[in-house]
Write a structure and sequence with these properties.
binds N-carbamoyl-L-aspartate, 4-stranded parallel beta sheet, 309 residues, alpha/beta, 2 domains
Length: 309
């Protein structure tokens, strides 16, 4: 059986390099088979519970597409208001109920640690699709998959992570994954939104070369890829703090052409104003391809935890 069989996927930290490489390999295989039009039935007779207590477009739809492409079926909800949570049901009860209906649970919830809480009560594997400002491990794996696709190889590369590094859960998971590679990271953010110190220290400890700056232009010139992120408005307790940093970094075509015309541009999406639409038709603009890769990586993860890869 594969290494992820019957396991929860909760954080970037849980993965060994071997496991990451296995997921990448299975995802490549899924991508090839979908591209060839192969009919897959790995998960025939299996049900995914897709429980989204917090807004989502890509993550929810790509988990659901992944299960459908594997020949399985999907149940779930896309907002807590439409469920018994609005009657006061606890997360633990909702999860224990879904556990009776489905073979695997994908979930998103606004509270840090919620996916761990769910995994503690569920018999079925739980896959974390984002827990507040905590973790978003499937996004980090699809980001890595995309970087490998776009750059050919990730080792030895320099990636600029830009924007709200303090609240961005995709970045929090990504740094855990990137620790296993020989890469350089340039962290670009306003002072208020820097990556938390323990995460920076742990990157240093694992041998990743990290620099921190507020200057996007110099970071672009020095990088092979740039990972733009949205300022996470919904995570600010004080709206006036958000007003101070909103719109702080905007990547547009002119800036790319001036600093590094070959740079690969990623973004977990949704974007607000961090990437101008005039970037979209540059060859390096990879964010919609990145979203598509989410389906292949989630196909790999679902099939692996169900022992059907
Ligand atoms: C991200 C998220 O929800 O953390 N989106 C996603 O999953 N693709 C990023 C964001 O909302 O800014």
């Amino acid at each position: 059986m594969n290494e992820l069989f019957d396991r929860d996927i909760l954080s970037g930290e849980q993965f060994t390099l071997d496991e990451i490489q296995t997921v990448m390999g299975v995802a490549h295989d899924m991508r090839r088979r979908v591209a060839h039009g192969t009919h897959l039935d790995n998960c025939h007779g299996k049900v995914l519970a897709s429980l989204f207590f917090e807004p989502s477009t890509r993550t929810r739809l790509s988990f659901e597409t992944a299960m459908l492409r594997l020949g399985g079926q999907v149940i779930g909800f896309s907002s807590a208001e439409s469920t018994s949570v609005s009657k006061g049901e606890t997360l633990s009860d909702t999860i224990q109920m879904a556990d009776q209906f489905a073979n695997v649970i994908a979930m998103r919830h606004p509270r840090v640690g919620s996916a761990h809480e769910a995994a503690a009560v569920a018999v079925r594997p739980v896959i974390n699709g984002g827990d507040g400002i905590g973790q978003h491990p499937t996004q980090a794996l699809l980001d890595l998959f995309t970087l490998q696709q776009e750059l050919g190889d990730f080792d030895g590369r320099t990636i600029a992570l830009v924007g709200d590094l303090r609240h961005g859960r995709t970045v929090h998971s990504a740094v855990e994954i990137y620790k296993h590679f020989n890469c350089r990271l340039i962290l670009v953010s306003p002072e208020q939104l820097m990556l938390q110190r323990p995460m920076v220290e742990s990157l240093h400890k694992s041998g990743v070369a990290v620099t921190e700056t507020t200057d996007l232009e110099s970071a672009l010139s020095a990088s092979d890829a740039v990972y733009m992120t949205r300022i996470q408005k919904e995570r600010f307790a004080d709206p006036s703090e958000y007003e101070k940093v909103k719109g702080c970094y905007v990547l547009n075509r002119e800036l790319i052409m001036r600093t590094n015309s070959r740079i690969v541009v990623l973004h977990p999406l949704p974007r607000v104003d961090e990437i101008s639409t005039d970037v979209d038709d540059l060859p390096g603009a990879a964010y919609f391809r990145q979203a598509q890769n989410g389906v292949y990586v989630r196909m790999a993860l679902i099939a692996m935890v169900l022992g059907k890869a």
